[in-house]
Amino acid sequence: MDRNTDGNTDGNSDRNTHETTHETTHEATDGIAVRRVYDAPEPGDGTRVLVDRLWPRGVSKERAAVDEWLKEVAPSNELRTWYHKDASRHAEFDARYRQELAQGPAADALERLLALTRGGPVALVTSVKSIEGSHLQTLLDVLRHAGGTGQTSP
Questions:
Q1: 122-126 and 47-50: which strand pairing?
Q2: DSSP characters for 53-113?
Q3: What is the mean pLDDT of each run of 10 residues along the chain (154 residues)?
Q4: Could you give the CA distance from residue 98 to residue 65 in angstroms, rounded to a whole number?
Q5: 136, 62 in Cβ contact below 8 A?
Q6: pTM of the full predicted structure?
């Protein structure tokens, strides 16, 4: 089996498998930036944290260049599947996702992420094409409202 330049064995490379959209990054506000995993790390990213439940298809660990993978901070598989069937349910998705972030492993992962944001710049790394309408919109809101207060109630 031949390997291409990014380590994939499926015959596709990151460059031609995943389209780039006009919204590939969200510039840092309050020390938190959003970066697509398919793009190169940027100076000043700080700690790079993958915040997707699933590992991005076709991306090696070296290419992703993430310091941590907090998959528990992403929506559950059930919630993600439910929402992807009908994106018009964003308001209900947002409420359900906030409930998930308030308990169990998701709350622990959120607390870890908050601790990282208090320690310096953080780049939330994801495979989503657009922040708008994704779990990142809610996660950013939760992180920014919790700020440095130590409170994690979404």
A1: parallel
A2: SSPPTT--HHHHT-SEE-GGGSPPHHHHHHHHT-GGGHHHHHHHHHHHHTSHHHHHHHHHH
A3: 36 38 51 93 95 95 96 96 91 96 97 95 94 92 74 40
A4: 28
A5: no
A6: 0.78
